[in-house]
Design brief:
alpha+beta; five-stranded antiparallel beta sheet; three-stranded antiparallel beta sheet; 13 strands
Length: about 270
Amino acid sequence: MIFYLILSPFVSCIPTGQHSVRVPYEERKIEIPTWFIQKPKISGLDLSYAYCSQYNDKERELNELLMSAAKNFKIANQTRMIIMQEGLIHADRTIGGTQVTECEVSFDKNNLSDNYKIISQFPVGKGILAIAAKTSQLKMGFIPKFTNRLKVLDNYSPPKWAITPPSKKGYVYGLGLAPDYSSPEKAWSVAEQNARADIVFQKIVNILDYEGFNQATDFSLQENKGKAWASCILKNVSIIKHGYCKREKTYYALARMKEADMKFLN
């Protein structure tokens, strides 16, 4: 008899000791620019999202946005994720827990304003959403202009791409979800990490390690323990879309990368 450990394709990662602060969904109305809903495509220009809280000190605010941009550019270039999942199948039910760790990336905190440029930003709640570029790619001082054409995200159903993720030969897409945090920019940041983790989850089934099973005379008491572990390097992974579902009070992010840019570590 063969038993299968079914891994959930979605990850919800809330750091220990932190709790999301929910508001009644009737009151949650999020208005964001279209460049945040779907990342613009400009030939020869890499773009990354950035986040920070709003401050009265605008110099500090800009510095935090640049630090966020620098970090996200590094993550997009290469990031290491460690995922562990343990499950117990008992009477045809799968009970399990998941732990996701994205290793910290290092970047030069000096001369941030020389290396990165905030192209556009928009306040949402008590935070700021922004999109940034590498200064070295802005040839001859050319800075693309993204209009802050706004769209109200009060959808009562998830985005279509969250229900049916895109598919393209040679690429892998990851869907990330996050609950309703006190600040949208925090929720979307968590959703982005979970989108990257989902890319790993789609391959983790290849390295399942079963610990064996115990079976009583009563079939309903059979148990099978399973454990999955992966340490993976993701390269050139990009967050390309964001969404929100008012009814579910859930934030979404979609990640994309080439299958060839994924490397599992021993």
